[in-house]
């Protein structure tokens, strides 16, 4: 059986996931993005390039959205030339977007009123995970529809975690995930910048802490870039954590929950972004701490 799937949002991660779907024998992928070069890559992978989200969604049983935030997701679904213009009854919309939990919940209700299923399914794993189909997917929504969508999820990731039965619950888990990622990354930058300021060899310090109880996934992955001070090859940008830790801050405030460590991490990413380095790889958070030694 061949499934027609629409895909909107061919950014750094979305493009890699879309390529895997386009290459699958049982999927007819119809994709839309504003960048012609991204659409050309999808054509070369076996997919079809479309001029709008509405065109991409024609005759689709499933739609995958991989844009930047909740506002863009709403526009993709309900805006001019959005999915709603060609959506079939029973359409399953898979949102892989990091957004506020209440945004995901509201989109879920609006889609439900139209007879569609909205699966709130943000992902973790970065560009590498997207390219290799090893993303972790945290899905909130109708369990039966999630299971029926495994032919998509199994291509995109190797860890599908159903975290709840309502849209918004996936977004909440993603916020918690990003809290930890952002804090661990900022802490790695602080530690290696302190080592440098103390006159130590960053490589030697990294070799020790990356193999000790101080190690974290973020330290081991970003540490080599911090040691080399090389941030131009971007796997995830500084400004992504400005956005995501901003969501964490908003979630914590809405729940009247103190999150001081996450707030401190956010300030470090804001500090780097404010110095014009928001588009650099997020390992450049180290430069925030280097600034105090200048």
UniProtKB/TrEMBL annotation:
Annotated 6-phosphogluconate dehydrogenase NADP-binding domain residues: 5-164
InterPro entries: 6-PGluconate_DH-like_C_sf, 6PGD_dom2, 6PGDH_NADP-bd, HIBADH-like_NADP-bd, HIBADH-related, NAD(P)-bd_dom_sf
Transmembrane residue ranges: none
Domain of life of the native organism: Bacteria
Keywords: NAD, Oxidoreductase
One Pfam family hit: NAD_binding_11
Record-linked SUPFAM superfamilies: 6-phosphogluconate dehydrogenase C-terminal domain-like (SSF48179), NAD(P)-binding Rossmann-fold domains (SSF51735)
Domain 3-hydroxyisobutyrate dehydrogenase-like NAD-binding: 168-289
Protein's UniProt name: NAD(P)-dependent oxidoreductase
Source organism (scientific name): Herbaspirillum lusitanum
Taxonomy of the source species: Bacteria, Pseudomonadati, Pseudomonadota, Betaproteobacteria, Burkholderiales
């Amino acid at each position: 059986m061949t499934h027609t799937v629409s895909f909107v949002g061919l950014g750094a991660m979305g493009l890699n996931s879309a390529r895997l779907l386009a290459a699958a024998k049982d999927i007819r992928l119809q994709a839309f993005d504003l960048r012609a070069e991204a659409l050309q890559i999808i054509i070369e992978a076996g997919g079809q390039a479309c001029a709008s989200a509405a065109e991409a969604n024609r005759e689709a049983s499933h739609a995958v959205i991989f844009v930047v935030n909740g506002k863009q997701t709403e526009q993709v679904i309900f805006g001019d030339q959005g999915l709603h213009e060609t959506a079939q009854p029973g359409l399953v919309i898979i949102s892989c977007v990091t957004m506020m939990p209440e945004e995901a919940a509201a989109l879920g209700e609006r889609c439900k009123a139209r007879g569609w299923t909205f699966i709130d399914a943000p992902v973790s794993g970065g560009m590498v995970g997207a390219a290799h189909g090893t993303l972790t997917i945290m899905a909130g929504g109708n369990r039966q529809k999630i299971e029926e969508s495994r032919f998509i999820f199994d291509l995109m990731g190797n860890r599908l975690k159903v975290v709840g039965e309502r849209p918004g619950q996936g977004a909440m888990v993603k916020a918690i995930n990003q809290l930890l990622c952002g804090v661990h990354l900022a802490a790695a930058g602080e530690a290696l910048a302190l080592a440098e300021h103390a006159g130590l060899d960053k490589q030697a310090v990294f070799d020790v802490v990356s193999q000790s109880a101080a190690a974290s996934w973020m330290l081991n992955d970003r540490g080599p870039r911090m040691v080399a001070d090389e941030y131009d090859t971007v796997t995830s940008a500084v400004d992504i954590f400005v956005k995501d830790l901003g969501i964490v801050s908003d979630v914590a405030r809405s729940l009247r929950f103190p999150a001081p460590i996450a707030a401190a991490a956010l300030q470090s990413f804001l500090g780097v972004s404010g110095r014009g380095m928001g588009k650099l790889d997020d390992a450049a958070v180290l430069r925030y701490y280097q600034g105090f030694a200048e």
